[in-house]
Design brief:
The chain has 366 residues and is α/β, with parallel strands linked by helices. Helix content is 37%, strand content 15%. It contains twelve helices and twelve strands. The protein has a seven-stranded mixed β-sheet with strand order 1-7-6-5-4-2-3, with helices on both faces. Strands 8-9-12-11-10 form a five-stranded mixed β-sheet, covered by helices on one side. α4 links the parallel β2 and β3. The longest helix is centred in the last third of the chain and has 20 residues. The N and C termini lie far apart (46 Å).
Length: 366
């Protein structure tokens, strides 16, 4: 990303008058002054808000595409799917991706007449994409951190008439750029690293296809899946430090993965490790290796003991915060071993965090 793009992403307000505030104003308005025909200006809070626009401007520079903000990652995912699917269409989703996406497909979209098929991420490219309206992928997958080749899948899916939607929540635009690899829409939960402080729910979808962007905006307007202005303001604030936080988190995660992998009795899954089955793909497709580490301990008890023993770990769901967190993902029904831990590395000093993780792991395995 160019310096100009970074600068614009941090502060797109280039028309400031003397005395204007540097941050974008927080606009709390359900109604606007709308005389006459009511066109060409803000009219109603479900369709217009300057604080959303500031956030979308920043997200758009990060994605190099037009972005549409939503009140959560699942709201963005829902919008992307509902805006592109109709009864009789077929949808392909990863069987090992974020489980709520599968719930949406199975419990809602199938009921509305959409056919749903699933494939594991590591074998997502196997088989044809013919007959699908939407191919939805997530790489690295959450929580297993498997990868698939975005460019290959996007090219083949497009040739067979499908749209590709890529969930980039685990990587952010600083770690991976699915639109550059041919995806039609990228979705993400900005609740994670973009928000980064565990205090806001937010999501976005972005596309370089004006018709798809119009469909996303239309869905938001009609469904009412709108972000709150204060949450948009908080997320915009956080984006200004995303590049710095993400770099620190990835650097520490890479060093931690190497150290933890040297511990007998634990299996470590991290795309940056040469032993990861898709390490070469990660090196070619991803700018960074991410801040998530998968750890498989011998049992549920050992996994819980590891999380409890490390003073730097918050036992919590979600990820991407400045504070490191971890959870045993099998508790939500993910198809992972009972002792599988998703570790989200934060911004703590690595010289303190990494030894604490090693000590807690050794104690849990003793």
């Amino acid at each position: 990303m160019s310096g100009l793009a970074r600068e614009e992403a941090q502060d797109g307000r280039r028309d400031l008058a003397p005395g204007d505030p540097l941050p974008p104003p927080l606009t709390l308005a359900a109604m606007y002054h709308a005389p006459g025909a009511g066109t060409g200006h803000a009219v109603y809070g479900r369709t217009d808000n300057p604080t959303w626009e500031a956030l979308e401007h920043a997200l758009g520079h990060l994605e190099a595409a037009e972005a549409v903000a939503f009140p959560s990652g699942m709201a963005a995912i829902s919008a992307a799917l509902f805006a592109t699917l109709k009864a009789g269409d077929r949808l392909l989703v990863p069987s090992d991706g974020y489980y709520v996406t599968r719930l949406l497909a199975e419990r809602v979209l199938e009921r509305f007449g959409v056919g749903v098929d699933q494939r594991p991420t590591a074998r997502f490219a196997e088989g044809s994409f013919a007959g699908y309206r939407v191919v939805y992928l997530e790489t690295p997958s959450n929580p297993g951190l498997d990868l698939c080749d975005i460019a290959d899948i996007a090219a083949r899916a497009r040739a067979e008439g499908a749209l590709v939607i890529a969930d980039n929540t685990t990587m952010t635009p600083f770690g991976q750029r699915p639109l550059d690899h041919g995806a039609d829409i990228v979705v993400a939960a900005d609740t994670k690293a973009p928000g980064g402080h565990s205090d806001v729910l937010m999501g976005h979808a972005a596309s370089r296809d004006p018709a798809l962007v119009a469909a996303l905006r239309d869905w938001r307007r009609i469904s009412g899946a709108i972000p709150g202005p204060f949450e948009a303001w908080l997320t915009h604030r956080s984006l200004e430090t995303l590049e710095l936080r993400f770099a620190r988190m990835c650097d520490t995660a890479g060093a931690a993965a190497v150290r933890l992998a040297a511990t007998p009795g634990v299996e470590v899954r991290y795309p940056g490790l040469p032993g990861h089955p898709s390490h070469n793909l990660a090196r070619s497709q991803m700018a960074r290796m991410g801040f998530l580490i998968g750890l498989t301990l011998p049992s549920e008890a050992a996994a819980e003991a590891f999380i409890a023993a490390c003073p730097y770990l918050r036992p919590a769901t979600s990820f991407g915060g400045v504070h490191s967190s971890a959870e045993r993902r099998a508790r939500w029904g993910d198809a992972v071993p009972p002792g599988y831990v998703r570790l989200s590395v934060g911004c703590e000093p690595p010289e303190e965090l990494i030894p604490a993780l090693e000590t807690a792991l050794a104690a849990a395995l003793a």
